Amino acid sequence: MSVEQRNNPKLLMGIMGALVTVVVLVLLYQWLNASSGEAETERMHQQDIAAVPTVKPTANTKEDTAAAKAVEASESNALVSDQLLDAPVPENASLAKEEVAKLEDIQVQLNEQKVTLDAQHQDVDQLIQLKEEQIKLLEAQLAQSQ
Predict the structure, then answer these.
(1) Largest CA distance in the chain
(2) Which helix (H) or strand (E) holds 98?
(3) Tens-digit pLDDT profile for the chain (146 aa)?
(4) CA-based nearest residue to 50, from 85, 87, 75
(5) Which residues of 99-118 are buried (b: 16+ CB within 10 A; e: fewer)?
(6) Among 82, 84, 77, 122, which residue's Cα sits nearest to residue 100?
(7) What are the distances in angstroms from CA 105 to CA 51, 85, 101, 108, 116?
(8) pTM
(9) CB-based contacts of 55: which residues, under 8 Å, 6+ apart?
């Protein structure tokens, strides 16, 4: 390949265009793949929430209806409901295994949340202690300047 052919602007623009196209296609594939994964995760989460049986109280007045909707909304956001404890154990072994696996996953999530909350609590305690020391130092500095 001669020097003129290597420095040809059309050839360079063609190579750059091909590289940019490949990069854009890879990014587009990853973006679409990630968004479909998020949609599937959200769909599975909605199915899990819908699978939890709820007992709806009968509403006689507008206040009762509003209270029932508030209770229902708070129950749908809860990770574990009280009704889960009262639910009968499935007689089918595979369904029972699925239920146990689901409960183990929930327990793992609760344990992780507990660890995270404990760590946050310790961090907050340390921050409070540091702020108290800072306030004492500022008060001492203010007393010296007066």
Answers:
(1) 90
(2) helix 93-145
(3) 676 676 788 888 888 999 999 999 999 988 888 776 666 666 666 665 555 554 444 444 444 555 555 555 555 555 666 776 677 766 777 888 888 888 899 999 999 999 999 999 999 999 999 999 999 999 999 999 88
(4) 75
(5) eeeeeeeeeeeeeeeeeeee
(6) 84
(7) 15, 16, 6, 5, 17
(8) 0.36
(9) 83
